[in-house]
Design brief:
Shape: globular
Number of strands: 2
Structural class: mainly alpha
CATH class: Mainly Alpha
CATH topology: MetI-like fold
Strand order of the largest sheet: 1-2
CATH superfamily: MetI-like
Strand content: under 5%
Order of helices and strands: HHHHEEHHHHHHHHHHHH
Distance between the termini: 44 Å
Number of helices: 16
């Protein structure tokens, strides 16, 4: 008897498998499709833990390498403070300690793990966590919303423009790119001059009207939306060109791949080829860029907050730097660092599930 060689299963034996999807970068339809890449995620987690430690260590040493301190800066603005009060402030802020630098570093980590970021001399010895928590929602609400809207419009628009290359839609690329080259402060001042001063459609600045008491009511929410529309629109306009141009260029690269040609040759609908195959691969670099822009969201656009007199983390950081309020500076840097790291972790997870090559290579 002759041995019968085992036959490899074909796509005909598996009707639920799309032949175009096998071997492409869009997805890998195999039995282990839903397996969680624990090895990949563990390696990335170790990398980000090390990055977090390095960032917090630099956050500890940087203020101690700068000249002056918060008390000296405070005394230069308030001449009537007695020497005894100045010594008490230094003792409260830990500036008069005779501990070694290593012991201060250990104390810093001990307080950090307890959630104690110190007190802010600039804000009347209020806890830094309280000061940052009051400014953070304004920045995340405005800049975060505008960045997400800009990313969504730019990515979807870039995918459609890349798919319809050579059409009239490509006129949007030079227009949005030109708007992105305009300095933001000039774009913001121009928007204020046109829409606030001349037309009177929007308020000039601030987060809400003068005399308005913050609260969860329709009047206050309407004021917040009205005051935030103009700065949010300028952020979208200023950042739209980069997202659209990047997605369009990636689409042009992906459309030359063989699996796109095979999918079109099979007679698949154009919408399926566009969104399931082409755009799914082209969006991968966009995801990583969006994760990096999270630092821009949390850090706040300092220029935007200065132009529109908007309360946020960016202006808070600028004021803390000018006043040499190191505790507040460290607290803001900590929030920015954690936000960027968490966003990059989520981007890596999304990247691993969208592109199996990533987890296969690093595993």
């Amino acid at each position: 008897m002759t041995a019968v060689e085992p036959q490899m299963p074909t796509t005909d034996d598996r009707p639920d498998v799309d032949a175009v999807e096998i071997g492409t970068t869009a997805t890998k339809v195999v039995a282990g499709r839903s397996r969680i890449p624990w090895r990949f995620l563990g390696g990335r987690a170790a990398f980000y833990l090390f990055t977090l430690w390095a960032a917090l260590t630099i956050n500890f040493f940087l203020p101690r390498m700068m000249k002056g301190d918060a008390v000296s800066q405070y005394l230069s603005r308030n001449r009537n403070v007695s020497p005894e009060a100045a010594d008490a402030l230094r003792s409260l802020l830990g500036l008069d300690t005779d501990k070694t630098l290593f012991q201060q570093y250990l104390d810093y980590w001990g307080l950090l793990l307890q959630g104690d970021l110190g007190v802010s001399l600039l804000h009347g010895l209020r806890p830094v966590t309280e000061v940052v928590s009051q400014a953070l929602p304004w920045t995340v609400g405005l800049v975060g919303f505008a960045t997400i809207v800009s990313f969504a419009i730019g990515t979807i628009g870039g995918a459609v423009i890349g798919w319809r290359r050579g059409s009239r839609l490509e006129a949007f690329i030079p227009i949005t790119t030109f708007l992105s080259t305009i300095p933001y402060f000039w774009l913001g001042l121009l928007a204020i001059a046109v829409f606030s001063v001349n037309l009177g459609w929007f308020p000039i600045g601030k987060a809400y009207g003068v005399g308005m008491v913050p609260g969860w009511n329709l009047e206050f929410i309407g004021q917040v939306i009205l005051h935030g529309t103009l700065p949010a629109a300028t952020i979208v306009i200023a950042s739209l060109g980069g997202w659209m141009l990047g997605m369009r260029n990636m689409m042009l690269t992906v459309l030359d791949e063989d699996y796109i040609t095979v999918a079109q040759a099979k007679g698949m609908p154009n919408q399926r080829v566009l969104w399931r195959y082409a755009a799914r691969n082209a969006v991968l670099p966009q995801i990583q860029s969006f994760a990096l822009s999270i630092g821009f969201i949390v850090g706040g656009t300092i220029v935007m907050e200065m132009v529109f007199s908007y309360p946020g983390v960016g202006k808070l950081l600028l004021d803390a730097t000018n006043a040499k309020d190191y505790a507040l500076m460290q607290g803001v840097f900590l929030v920015i660092t954690l936000s960027v790291l968490i966003a990059n972790i989520l981007a890596d997870i999304a990247y691993a599930f969208l592109d199996p090559r990533t987890r296969q290579t690093e595993a």
